[in-house]
Design a protein that fits this description.
5% of the residues lie in helices and 52% in strands. The protein has three helices and 29 strands.
Length: 473
């Protein structure tokens, strides 16, 4: 009976995570701002996103300039003695894409034999490092990426043991199945990849080979459910929490990358005829493993909270099939730093300043195969390479009972010579009724860039204004 139960939980985690999110404005139901005290929360949201630069040159052809729809979210925390069940998820229907999307961030059953220990089975969110959620990069945990600028973390799936103690706490996880990053819906139509979502980046539509320029005709060699998920891994961390003004974390993992690596057979693919030249390409995603070693140090110095992080990613260099043109990645050092402090006397309406820095050394490798060149055929894994951020959070008093919550964040990436400006605002009319506004603007600055095919160049015209109206039951 227990074996059947375990298989049911793991299969549930995969099936519920197998759909991707819409581009909608999102509210995570577990946040305190919902102000519900029951063990179940249901939220309905009407959303509308407008891509205000959809008429610009670099807005992808075939993408829609808006996204409208409705979503229903659920958070369930149910306790029965020493057992607890937690579900945190949301289902979106995009009327623009005419598609239904299901996101499950957590779905697990936990057993607490005492106050310090927890054993969990299922999909579980945890904090394995300090920087990757802030910079929208999935290394430890996968993401929902329908909107790549505002991606959402989801938990790992497996069996977990958490031990809370002073001065050291630890957690270990055995991961029997792999759930990858999940992004925009797409299809293959008329031998081309198609998607209405502006955050989908299709492969090149033409090729150049031996002075021949022709069209590429695509198909997708989609892995089966077993091929995509039957990859085991493990993760562990230890945290030092016994000092007054210091917190430290060391985390390690050996598991599949959340991102698939892409490739295609390249032998005998180019066909030259009297009327046309074309290439048949069958894109094949493959799972690759990596080792992660991460350290975080957090200090409290007066009013300043300062964080320093260092991570080493070491991908397995398993060779792709011999006749493939394939994506490759290399080992990387990731350095991150952050600092924040209140700008006013501490209180519920105090403004807070946030500074951030991220540097990625390595991580990119030249493609291998017959059609490889100095410029990769595939999208880069890291969104930012050397980035600086400035943020400000400020709740404003209002004539109503609840404040207006505002946040502004500016990001500049030196190697891409571009940046992002993001603005968010939220207001609760009542405990149940809430309105949210999001604005994102991306762009490149005049002058050359060391990285010309990065995230900011690909999505430079995805400027967006999003509105959402939510009700919590």
């Amino acid at each position: 009976m227990s074996r059947i139960f375990i298989h049911f939980v793991l299969l549930f985690c995969w099936l519920t995570a197998g759909a991707q999110t819409s581009d909608s404005l999102r509210l995570k139901l577990g946040e305190a701002k919902l102000q519900k005290t029951s063990d179940m929360k249901i939220q309905l949201t009407l959303f509308n996103s407008e891509y205000v630069s959809s008429g610009q040159t670099f807005f992808r052809e075939g993408a829609e300039g808006n996204n409208r729809g409705v979503s229903a979210g659920l958070v369930l925390d149910k306790k029965l003695g020493t057992f607890e069940m937690r579900i945190n998820g949301r289902n979106d229907y995009s009327a623009t894409e005419r598609s239904n999307y299901l996101n499950v961030y957590e779905a697990n059953v936990s057993w607490r034999p005492d106050a310090d220990r927890t054993v969990s089975l299922g999909r579980k969110l945890d904090r394995w490092n300090e920087w990757e959620a802030a910079w929208n990069q999935g290394l430890f945990q996968p993401r929902y990426m329908t909107n790549k600028l505002r991606s959402e973390e989801a938990g790992l799936a497996g069996l977990f043991l958490n031990q809370s103690a002073v001065p050291f706490a630890f957690a270990v996880g055995f991961l029997p199945i792999h759930i990858p990053d999940l992004g925009a819906r797409f299809t293959v139509e008329n031998n081309k990849f198609a998607s209405r979502n502006p955050w989908f980046n299709p492969p090149a539509s033409q090729f150049e080979y031996r002075d021949v320029i022709g069209d590429i005709r695509y198909s997708l060699d989609k892995p089966t459910l077993s091929e995509g998920t039957s990859h085991m891994g493990g993760v562990a961390k230890v945290e030092a929490n016994g000092l007054k003004n210091y917190f430290g974390r060391l985390a390690v993992a050996y598991k599949p990358m959340p991102q698939f690596l892409l490739g295609f057979p390249s032998r005998n693919r180019v066909l030259v005829s009297a009327n046309e030249d074309f290439m048949n390409v069958s894109v094949a995603p493959r799972v690759a493993y990596h080792t992660l070693i991460s350290h975080d140090s957090i200090f409290q110095v007066g009013s300043w909270k300062m964080t320093g992080s260092l991570m080493r990613e070491i991908p397995d260099q398993a060779a792709s099939p011999q006749d493939f043109t394939a994506q490759r990645v290399s080992s990387a050092w990731i350095t991150s730093a952050a600092a924040s402090r209140p700008l006013e006397v501490e209180g519920p309406f105090a403004a807070r300043l946030q500074l951030g820095f991220l540097k990625v050394d390595g991580g990119d490798e030249q493609d291998t195969g017959r059609f490889a060149s100095s410029r990769s055929l595939f999208e880069r894994r890291y969104q930012y390479k050397e980035a600086y951020s400035l943020g400000l959070i400020k709740p404003w008093r209002s004539a109503f009972r609840f404040p207006v919550e505002t946040q502004v964040r500016l990001i500049y990436d030196r190697l891409q010579n571009g940046g992002v400006a993001s603005i968010s605002a939220g207001f609760n009319f009542t405990k149940e009724l809430r309105a949210d506004l999001e604005m994102d603007f991306l762009g490149l600055f005049p002058g050359s860039a060391e990285i010309e095919d990065g995230f900011l160049a690909l999505y430079r015209s995805n400027d967006r204004i999003g509105l959402g109206l939510s009700y919590v039951f």
